[in-house]
């Protein structure tokens, strides 16, 4: 029997074979460790030790003691800390796209959509993006050849996380628009993590109009862990 056991933060079971020629007992056992049995007679006894999941923010250690006929030996159990969520944020920059409808207002009509004050936040726990938000200010202008007014007045657009993963340092997160966003658009944030930052691309696509007016912009931001 060794005198040290190292386990991960989740629920664990460790089998320990106790071989003695007299009665034994396991003492100094904290509540997060449950041996079954915790005592026995001479011979060979297999004790199954349950180690509860570590729901704290730090690792923990217990030095239990096997007592046998007046002698004792220690069994140290170390349990690692559970993984903690990491939030990556980035803000700043702008993106502009120009587009023309294919019919109705003539070939000279051009709309210009600009996104400013772009901000992105994603929170990651292990491989899952558990929370996130994308915000930007959007405006649209039209040149003198357009007979229809711009669809976007100056407005704040907000997008909340719908799903996301960060696997093998590759981020892929998708966001749903707030009901008040005009026009409606989809947002996908992808990127590669290196160290404590993610080089991210924010793919914004308008989704509520004809193909010609469904513009797309792909600004980039560096997201940094905080």
Short description:
The chain is mostly beta strands and 226 residues long. It has no helices and 18 strands.
Please work out how many helical segments DSSP would assign.
0
Give the total of beta strands. Answer: 18
How does the helix and strand content classify structurally? mainly beta
Strand content: over 45%
What strand order characterises the main sheet?
A: 9-11-12-13-14-15-16-18
Major β-sheet annotation: 8 strands, antiparallel, barrel
Average pLDDT metric: 91
Helix content: under 10%
The dominant shape is rod-shaped
The helix-strand sequence is: EEEEEEEEEEEEEEEEEE
Using only CA atoms, what is the Rg?
30 Å
Distance between the termini: 43 Å
Low-pLDDT ranges: none
How would you describe the overall organization of this protein?
Helices cover 0% and strands 62% of the residues. It has strands spanning 4-7, 12-20, 24-27, 33-36, 39-40, 43-51, 60-68, 71-79, 86-91, 94-99, 111-125, 128-142, 155-167, 170-177, 185-194, 197-206, 216-217, 220-225. Strand 15 and strand 16 form a beta hairpin. The chain starts with a strand and ends with a strand.
